[in-house]
Structure to design on (980 residues):
């Protein structure tokens, strides 16, 4: 199998999987087997593409030409392979987890759930491997629409309201800001291909470039920069596996991934540095980091707290990207991976707590560490990674982002990072402390132990990955330094 | 036979109509009409291929050279329109069998198909002819057939809807005729090519200017441009489902074609946009129309009516494109003529299927549709996504080109208006989808619509996606047509 075939199959397989899951709907065990096989196959295919990329194979597939000069085309580069690896790899773990969660909570419409999940992964693969902005936009929308039934899964009024906010904000911003930004880029540059060094240089007036950057920043609402972030907390009405893989990894990372792509391959970092007032993006992202952390501090619901933490962490990535130092670009790329491992672990633990004890609020977690030791240890590891403490993944990316800040003497970034670390510690550490060292409430609602085994396995795997990434980040680092043309 | 293609498209329904009225029972007239529409589609496709290969196709009626005789003149623009009309007829007719028998009753079926054939005849005639007066004749044929068809609706309000359309349509046609009369007085010809040749020399005269005003206003009434759209919502709401699907997809589009023909070919870009303030008049009306009609559709409890208002809004997009007076704008406009035909055809057919099972088309009838009639429901979702303009549907292709055209001119407020229109579409489509997805079915015993309705309707839905991905056919022809039209005049 050539790398090109593998690349095409990464799109075909999840779609085919969705069809098969739908057909197998009547037999739950067969259906879940299909999900697992699809996820494993997909990950294998992504690995094959990675091997092709490392071997220097020519990778690129063109399907049809939609508009003159803009085909639906796919290729790969270090950043896209990273995103694809994370999304497809964590899909395997999430599937194991989801089986336990969905059966443990007796959810309705499970077939629809797995079908939409597979389609969402199809969207994520498309976003990852798209060779131009239009292809990316198409799959970006696939991702939005396919996750809507997942967000509204419960079907009650709360889910409907959440779904409306979700779809409303994501659709509005993509139509009103992102689409015109793309068409404008096309009108100016005559192409939408992702080219190292960008395609816009010399095609836009100075003020227009600033406006265009703004359209991109707010158009890609999946990156959840304030004030277009409200869909993310709203999406928390979804079942936890959805929040874990989609709203901590696939969907939100598709957002920041799009922004990094735009910065590096559409504007080009050199050109963007000349755009007047381009630093506004750094300030908006920095503000989002601090504000989201402050809001997280006041949350009582575990999943909402995690949602606001995600918003803050995403803006880390955006801030690092927009800072435009080579080190910070690398840090941004690595933080995509680092945050993914940590945050999916945290969501997994939140779901495990819910399934085992029906608890959803932070205040209910006193003493739960002794009932669910694996889960709460995993929670601690995930939380430490969010704060950025060694030996966790979060430390690695923070290291690079700080290095980037020093490269440019950008003290704003530095201050934001320090402030955010303190705030993260302020809302995560008490939870860990209370879970292990505070006595349980006198009248325990329910006598319970750990969640179902496959859920515990899944969250242990991701927690281990969070630790391992601290020690063995070499390959990822080597790969991602290529996006800025080698280690600076 | 190839040399006679343009007239064959006309002759098929013309000869079929009286025969259909003589046949008995609901099925024979239906079969005849369906076969004839397929034949007409075949001719249209061959014609398009012919035009693509050899350029403009001229057919002299009865061998009489213009200006004594009437000539049919097919270039890219009307070849595309012809494919749209006959294509939609070919899909709507198979659909009509069950739907019409259910809504109108078996005894009136022969008359229904007679009228429908006459409508197809009229619309095709307007499209192929190269004679300004001949346009009027076919316009009246199609209008009279339309009034009849609307009046056949089950609801008694169909009668008043038909009547008010009759009044408005007649005013429009009269305006058009007055304009053509003025032109005839000034130039002594009714042949479009001759008109285009002679008009530039006398374009300063107030008679020609008056003629322009009459013609544009008259046609705008027929194409339901805001604020001349008042006849449309009722007409679409109360006519039989199959008629709404066909009218919604084609009737106003043919009027748009006539407008384009007059503005670009006969009067020419320089006159229409230079000497006359066409853009200044049409652009604001188009924008107000698309925003206000979209807003109104959000509040409609009857979904057929909601889609009718959405049609008024979409006409705004189409007119906006042509009112830009550039090749790009015109391309977008022609594209949307074709694409909107596909999406509205599909959506109105969905409503026909809902009416068939649920007995109504209000939002209450749509509740819980995802459970009771999943195939119908998902067809609505896909059609709705196309209406919003989501990528990989035809709606996206139109919107892309329209925004590109507005950007080329630097018309930023227009870009904002177009996007705002899409947002309103998200709301009015979303509200129906939400009801269908989460609502409790009004009657849970109802089941999926019969295949006789589902197959034609899904053919159109798939066309919405097909032409959203494979844009070669539509975009290339629309671009070629726009280039031809912008070149002005008519190539002899």
């Amino acid at each position: 199998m050539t790398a090109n075939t593998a690349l095409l199959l990464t799109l075909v397989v999840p779609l085919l999987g969705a069809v098969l899951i739908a057909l197998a709907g009547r037999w739950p065990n067969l259906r879940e087997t299909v999900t697992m096989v699809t996820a494993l196959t997909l990950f294998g295919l992504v690995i094959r593409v990675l091997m092709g990329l490392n071997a220097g194979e020519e990778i690129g597939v063109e399907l049809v030409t939609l508009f003159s000069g803009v085909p639906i085309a796919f290729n790969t580069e270090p950043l896209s392979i990273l995103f694809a690896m994370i999304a497809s790899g964590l899909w395997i773990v999430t599937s194991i987890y989801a089986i336990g969660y969905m059966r443990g909570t007796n959810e309705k419409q499970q077939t629809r759930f797995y079908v939409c999940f597979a389609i969402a992964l199809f969207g994520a693969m498309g976003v990852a491997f798209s060779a131009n902005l239009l292809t990316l936009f198409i799959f970006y929308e696939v991702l939005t629409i396919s996750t809507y039934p997942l967000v509204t899964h419960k079907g009650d009024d709360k889910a409907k309201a959440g779904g409306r906010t979700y779809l409303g904000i994501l659709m509005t911003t993509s139509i009103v800001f992102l689409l015109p930004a793309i068409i404008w880029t096309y009108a100016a540059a005559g192409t939408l291909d992702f080219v190292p060094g960008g395609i816009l240089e010399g095609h836009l007036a100075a003020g227009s470039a600033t406006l265009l950057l703004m359209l991109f920043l707010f158009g890609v609402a999946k990156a959840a920069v304030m004030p277009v972030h409200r869909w993310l907390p709203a999406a928390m009405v979804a079942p936890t596996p959805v929040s874990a893989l989609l709203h901590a990894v696939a969907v939100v990372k598709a957002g920041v991934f799009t922004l990094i792509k735009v910065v590096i391959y559409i504007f080009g970092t050199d050109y963007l540095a000349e755009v007047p007032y381009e630093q506004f993006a750094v300030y908006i992202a920095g503000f989002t980091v601090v504000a989201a952390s402050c809001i997280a501090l006041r949350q009582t619901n575990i999943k909402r707290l995690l949602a606001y933490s995600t918003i803050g962490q995403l803006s880390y990535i955006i801030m690092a990207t927009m800072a435009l130092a080579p080190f910070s670009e690398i840090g941004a790329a690595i933080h995509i991976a680092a945050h993914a491992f940590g945050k999916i672990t945290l969501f997994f633990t939140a779901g495990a707590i819910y399934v085992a004890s029906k608890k959803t609020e932070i205040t209910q977690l006193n003493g739960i560490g002794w009932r669910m030791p694996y889960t709460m240890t995993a929670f601690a590891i995930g939380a430490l990674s969010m704060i950025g403490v060694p030996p966790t993944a979060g430390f690695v990316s923070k290291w690079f982002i700080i290095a980037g800040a020093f490269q440019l003497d950008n003290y704003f970034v530095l201050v934001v990072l320090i402030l955010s670390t303190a705030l993260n510690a302020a809302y995560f550490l008490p939870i860990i402390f209370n879970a292990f060292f505070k006595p349980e409430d006198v009248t325990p609602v329910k006598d319970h132990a750990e969640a179902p085994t496959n859920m515990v396995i899944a969250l242990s795997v991701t927690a281990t990955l969070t630790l391992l990434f601290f020690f063995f980040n070499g390959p990822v680092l080597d790969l991602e330094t290529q996006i800025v043309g080698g280690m600076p | 036979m190839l040399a006679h293609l343009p007239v064959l498209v006309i002759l098929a329904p013309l000869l079929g109509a009286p025969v259909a009225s003589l046949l008995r029972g609901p099925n024979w007239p239906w079969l005849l009409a369906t076969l004839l529409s397929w034949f007409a589609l075949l001719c249209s496709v061959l014609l398009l291929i012919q035009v693509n290969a050899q350029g403009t196709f001229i057919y002299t009626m009865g061998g009489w050279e213009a200006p004594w005789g009437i000539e049919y003149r097919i270039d890219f623009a009307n070849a595309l329109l012809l494919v749209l009309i006959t294509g939609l007829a070919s899909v709507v007719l198979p659909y009509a069998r069950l739907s019409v028998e259910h809504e109108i009753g078996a005894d009136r079926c022969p008359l229904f198909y007679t009228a429908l054939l006459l409508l197809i005849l009229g619309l095709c005639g307007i499209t192929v002819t190269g004679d300004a007066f001949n346009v009027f004749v076919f316009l009246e044929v199609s209008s009279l057939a339309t009034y009849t068809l609307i009046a056949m609706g089950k609801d008694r309000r169909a009668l008043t809807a038909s009547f008010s359309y009759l009044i408005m349509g007649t005013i429009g046609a009269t305006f058009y005729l007055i304009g053509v009369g003025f032109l005839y007085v000034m130039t002594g010809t009714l042949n479009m090519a001759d008109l285009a040749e002679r008009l530039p020399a006398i374009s300063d005269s107030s008679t020609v200017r008056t003629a322009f005003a009459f013609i544009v206003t008259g046609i705008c009434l027929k194409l339901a441009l805001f604020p001349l759209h008042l006849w449309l919502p009722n007409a679409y709401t109360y006519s039989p489902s199959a008629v709404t699907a066909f009218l919604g997809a084609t009737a106003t589009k043919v009027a748009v074609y006539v407008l384009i023909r007059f503005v670009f070919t006969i009067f020419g870009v320089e006159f229409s946009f230079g000497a006359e303030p066409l853009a200044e008049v049409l652009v604001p009306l188009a924008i107000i129309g698309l925003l206000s009609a979209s807003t109104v559709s959000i509040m409609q409890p009857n979904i057929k009516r909601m889609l009718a208002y959405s049609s008024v809004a979409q006409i705004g997009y189409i007119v906006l494109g042509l009112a830009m007076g550039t090749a790009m704008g015109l391309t977008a406009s022609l594209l949307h003529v074709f694409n909107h035909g596909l999406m509205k055809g599909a959506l109105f057919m969905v409503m026909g299927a809902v009416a068939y099972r649920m007995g109504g088309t209000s939002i209450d009838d749509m509740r819980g549709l995802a459970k009771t009639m999943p195939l119908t429901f998902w067809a609505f979702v896909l059609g709705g996504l196309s209406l919003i303009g989501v990528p990989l549907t035809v709606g996206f292709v139109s919107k892309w080109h329209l925004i590109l055209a507005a950007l080329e001119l630097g018309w930023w407020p227009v870009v904002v208006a177009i996007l705002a229109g899409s947002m309103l579409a998200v709301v009015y489509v979303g509200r129906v989808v939400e009801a269908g997805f989460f609502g409790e079915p009004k009657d849970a015993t109802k089941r999926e619509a019969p295949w006789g309705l589902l197959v034609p309707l899904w053919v159109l839905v798939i066309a919405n996606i097909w032409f959203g991905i494979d844009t070669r056919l539509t975009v290339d022809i629309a671009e070629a047509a726009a280039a031809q039209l912008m070149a002005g005049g008519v190539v002899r």
Observations:
- Chain A touches chain B at residues 64-68, 72, 134, 137-138, 141, 145, 149, 152, 155, 160, 164, 167-168, 171-172, 175-176, 179-180, 183-184, 186-187 (CB under 8 Å).
